[in-house]
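Entries read chain and fold; for instance:
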Amino acid sequence: MFSRAAFVAIALFWVTMNVLLWREEFGSGRNGVAEVPVATVIERVLDAPDASLLTLRQHGKIIGQVRWTPAILEAASSTNSPESELPEGMVRTPIGHKVDLDLNLFGEDPSSRWRLMSHLDLDTNQVWTSFQVRLLQRPNSWEINGTAGSDAIQLIFDDGHSRNEQRFSIADLSRPSLFLGPIAALIPRTLLPTPGALNPHQMASGFRWTARNDWLRIGSQRVRVYRIRARWMDRMEMNAYFSRAGEILRVTFPDGITLSNEALPGIGAEPREAAR
């Protein structure tokens, strides 16, 4: 009799816990699309264990490929420190994050093939400490470097024969013709920023960010995801979908430009928002 009662109690406990977990994860109504702090989603993205390999399309045509690689920065430790014996994959003392982005634009001729590589270091508060951006179109290359605490931005141009280097202040970002100088003539007009477009204060004030739980259809399945929506100056909108582990799944931009994760072939369909 006691064994039967114990079995029934354990079974009821197991069923109850599963129902509660199911409601928490898949419950209907507004809880299914509840807003979450943007910082929470960004932290998941920065802590993602794997890189995201994405296909870049415009109006359905493949025009490039993007590799997004986040990683946790760790403090250096001596070989005699107990932290040096931690198992592989364990983080010792995190001091921030780093993000590498590698973009390749395809083209039928060399003049339309571009590669952009960027590196960003962040502290534990997700504030940038340094960055490097390189734009390549052989034989030309452009490189921009910056470090937090220093008002100087370094710009290097190399055409394969000569190297030109200059420095400008962050305030000069609002006047591209001033800091680019003669190099501006060598940059394709479509890539040139408009006056004031790079002003950090103006850009920051124009953005509106929201994050929420949502659903994304992958093949025949609906998968629980995070979605970040960014609106700039109430004119342009971007939507980014991330797995619960922080991996990039899909990003949509204006003018029919999309990024989709190569590991998920059925993700090309337009996402369907969860029912309210």
